[in-house]
Write a structure and sequence with these properties.
By secondary structure, this protein is an alpha+beta fold. It has ten helices and six strands.
Length: about 260
């Protein structure tokens, strides 16, 4: 596979996720597709490091993350040397943010709109149906071949998605199987219902390995949306413990001072 071909495959990862807000949620709800629960790996440094590698190699060609600086990757256990050697391709310095070389004019000409920034995409996609991580996890796992689409690909969570699946060499190519079933509320109405996938070509890794790779990628985007979330939770536990001890001391003092009044 040529470098140009590989670059093309990477062009569109998560393209349109920024547009997958209310309209995307509404489309998914109309299809009745439940979101899969994304494994929580934000506290797993190895998963975050692998997710960062996937993000830089498959997402950062088109999607910027302008609220994230490369130097922040040291928070997930990477050294400055490792970041510079393996992840720093689109910026000259560690202190730079994760930008893309593609201009807005180029994006407009090639895609019709600039690909959205992914810095906080995990937070932006959260809804009553599930977390943003659940949305991203399900979205990235439900691409299928559709010859009626310009790109040859479609997606169960975002029907008529405007991007192909750039990770298909890992996952392989799949077709979605649908059946017409009667609507429970209206027997005269038939609904097109998803019933499963058919594997057309094998991927370079097993389905379980692919699911794990996507879980790592989603975990990285979940961490990127709030890099200090683990520290926030740790401090929150400390504060709650302090308040609990202070409340007990205050209660005992109150009992001691007011025992004569009673």
């Amino acid at each position: 596979m040529s470098p140009i071909h590989r670059a093309f495959l990477r062009i569109a990862l998560l393209l349109g996720l920024g547009c997958a807000s209310l309209s995307a949620h509404a489309a998914a709800e109309q299809q009745g597709i439940p979101l899969r629960h994304a494994p929580y790996r934000v506290n797993d440094l190895l998963a975050l490091q692998n997710g960062a590698k996937l993000f830089v190699n498959y997402c950062l060609n088109c999607h910027a993350a302008e609220f994230m600086r490369y130097e922040k990757l040291r928070s997930i256990g990477l050294t400055s040397g490792q970041v510079e050697k393996n992840l720093l391709f689109s910026a000259p310095r560690l202190g730079d943010t994760m930008k893309v070389s593609m201009t807005s004019a180029q994006a407009q000409a090639w895609f019709g709109a600039a690909p959205p920034d992914l810095s906080v995409i995990e937070r932006a996609l959260a809804s009553h149906r599930g977390s943003g991580a659940d949305f991203l996890y399900t979205y990235l796992l439900t691409f299928y071949r559709d010859t009626s689409r310009p790109t040859g690909w479609n997606n169960l969570v975002v029907p008529s998605v405007a991007m192909p699946n750039p990770l298909w060499p890992l996952q392989g190519q799949r077709a979605a199987k649908f059946e017409l079933k009667q609507d429970a509320a209206d027997p005269d109405l038939q609904l097109k219902t998803f019933v499963g996938f058919e594997q057309l070509t094998p991927g370079s890794i097993s389905p379980r390995q692919y699911d794990s790779q996507i879980a790592d990628l989603v975990a990285y985007m979940q961490w990127m949306a709030e890099p200090d979330q683990l520290e926030r939770k740790r401090l929150g536990v400390i504060v709650l413990l302090f308040l609990a001890v202070f409340t007990f001391i205050t209660w005992r003092l109150k009992s001691e001072y007011w025992k004569d009044v009673k």
